[in-house]
Give the backbone structure.
Amino acid sequence: MTLTPTSTAMFHGLSRSDLNTLNAEIVELQGRIATGKQDPRPSTDLLGAMRLSAAEERDTALSGFEENAARAASRLDQADIVVEEATNVMRRARDLALQSLSDTASPELRERITAELKILRDGLMSIGNTRDDQGRMLFGGFQTQTEPFADVGGVMTFQGDTGVPRLAISESRSIETGVSGQQVFGTGTPNGAFEALDDLIALLEGGTVSGLTRDGVLDGLAAATDSFIAQRTHIGVLSASAQQQSEFLASQRTDLAATISGLKDLDLADTILRLQEAMLARDAAQQTYAQVAQRSLFDYLR
Amino acid sequence: MTHIINIGKSGLLAAQTGLETTGQNIANAGTEGYLRREVVTREAIQSDGVEVRDIRRAFDELLNARFLEASSANGAAQAFDVHVRELETLMLADQNGIDAALTDLFDGVDALARSPEDPGLRRGFLQAGEDLGMQVRGLADAIDARAADIEAEREVLAEQATQKLDALARIENELSNATSAVARNPLLDLREATLAELAEIVPIHTSKNAAGNLTIRLGTDAGGTILMTKGEAGRIEAAPDGRVRAFAPDAPAAPALWRPGGGVMGGLADAVMVVSDTRGALDAWSARVAQEMNAVHSEGVTPAGADGGALFLTAGWTGTPGPLQRGDTTAHVEILDEAAMPTGPLTLIRDDASSQWQTFDAGGALLGVGNSEIVLPGLRIALSGKALDADRIDLIRADVDAGALRFALNEPGEIAAGGRFLVTPDPANTSDMAVTVSGTAPPAAREIRMLDATTGAVGFFDSATGTQIGAGTLDAARQVSFEGYTLTLTGTLTTGESFALEASTGAPGDNRVAVALADLRQSSPPVGTGGYGLSFAEIRLDVGASVASGSVRLATAEAALNASSGAIASAGGVNLDEEAARLIAQQQAYQANAQVISVGRNIFETLLGSL
């Protein structure tokens, strides 16, 4: 704007407003440095604000997925340990079966073995009724508050349901956080673990139950053991998958944290430079103003 | 010889006027709106010497008209900027707790999905839901308060504009009585300054007749309502939606509404739009949150086996006092049951004979009476304050009001985290085929069997008896409906495989609906549900975009105003250097003229001495 000559009041007014603008900028930059954050108002950077909102929403979602994956992995690992124990129980039962069902086994030995088998059966039941670290039944399906296995009149009954709780571990993927107790223990099927133990005990105690043969009982025990091993493999696959997703999510979140920090945190070096620039401009403006405004033609009137 | 003395005297007087005028200019160097005076001299006509023809104000009609326009534009930009910036601040994450409340709510849902039976987590979810409702209501109220502030400001401005019009009319009358330039000039300065103040409030168009009498019109062209003419002033009132109602001095009829495009009033009109758009967007957002989350929750069952109810309610009632209300009673409406409440509007009328408020519906039917409380189906109206006979309060129902958003559940047991159905694949199934079910629960246990994978024929059987009770064919979306529920088959369709279907009675560990609710944290592209944090951020961004465009507008307006007032200052302002130079010149002229008189006297005395 080159308007000459301008009025004296106008000159002072413009100088004042220029100095005010510079001072306001200095105060603003100083405030930013004090908080260490970018200006949160979207009007200062529309695109940045949109990106930040999207990144923050995604970060909260990923954090949820991460915790879900951790919970799934933890529950699956507990199931893995428990099913391994169950496998050991079945191996021991098979050893005992081989000993007791041999022709040379004495009645006393059979009696002792029968007693041990009953303890093993109780042990297997308590394995089936294991709780996770949150106190929830591992094998009850959706019935997490009631024990899934109960001895009803000498028959092992499954009281849970077939529900399989799942948790989301990404936008498009969810994972089972456990396995069905009915499936793991084969309850209600001829190859069920409890059924195999009950058959063995019945054979040792009476030996007259219809249709029970030594080989049949041994086959049942073997099938139940194999089923546990198969379940462990299944659980292992799920757990590995949860673990892998956990790591993937963690690395995604690290990247996201860098993005968020880039959008949110202040570029300190840049801001300090801008502050110095503004202060220099203000000093220069003050000095030139003082110089120019100091003298007028009146100073020369005598 | 008196002739030369007279010439000297006229020069002396002209120089004196010049000195006085310069002195006046210097004295007013800092006076706002003061225009430099200039002495216009000419050669004396009837005698020799010089005479002062006029003391002229350095006024430029064109520059001034441009300045009034720039003032209007700047006033508009300033007012808009202030209010949208305040709105932007309200929308910031650290000013309202909506972002944090949403995160808490979905963290709560996530936790619930991990342990649906945990009563502590259930309570946490209730807390987070209530908090979100509270934060949204708080923001809605804050936006409403902003709107009310703008309304109040517009009322004050209309009053101020009317006062300025009165002042201008008075100045016009005084001007018609003042005859000398010395008397007129200060009045003209005052008129120009008052016009500038008026133009800052509303855009005006000025015109002058041959005698210099001013006519002011509303708007930037000559077609607007006359606000002041012939020393008579009209007035301005604020009308709804940012508009104004302008009354001409002699207007007999009700004036038309006009939306100012400039001035502070125009800036406020634009701000009113942004504020009401933002409020509308918040209403729509609340409605979406409520509707989508309610839809998912209604698919669930509570631990007690009951169907999931609404999570959020959005309906609200606003009470407005009738125009003739003399008392100060206010009505507060509490919604007991949204489904049962009347559609409204309702009218409350005070009847002193019975000392009661009577409630009428739109058709004029009496719905209920009460003094401090009226209970209607689904509603409780609480009344407080002084009531006078025939006072009236109108209650308007809004089905979607962010200011009324509230969480509907009170007990942890009301949360329906579990699914309504339990689908169990037959142990003999080998494929990855799976069934998902939505809708109402079946009357009894059912078996679903894929009869023919190629034709998509599905059979339904009673699980207890094994008898077939129906059949259907999958549509393009692989769906088939039966007995009020809809099955969706996924995976590889395999003939002969079957699933057992039973109603779920609310197993404590069933987290399926909690998982579905947690899915709403982020938007799912094909369906478009969820993602509330981001869509709230979009509302905030829209306000930010208004602020950004407002500050560009402000910068442009300020530059234009500076240029325009610079032009006026350069043409008519006081420059002290210039005045000093003039002072020297006039002092010299004064001295020279005094010298002329002195020479005249000397000659005269010499002449006398020689006699």
Summary: Strands of chain A lie at 149-152, 155-158, 166-168, 174-176. Helices of chain A lie at 8-35, 46-100, 107-128, 181-185, 193-205, 214-264, 268-294. The domain at 52-260 of chain A is CATH 1.20.1330.10 (f41 fragment of flagellin, N-terminal domain). Chain A has a mean pLDDT of 89.
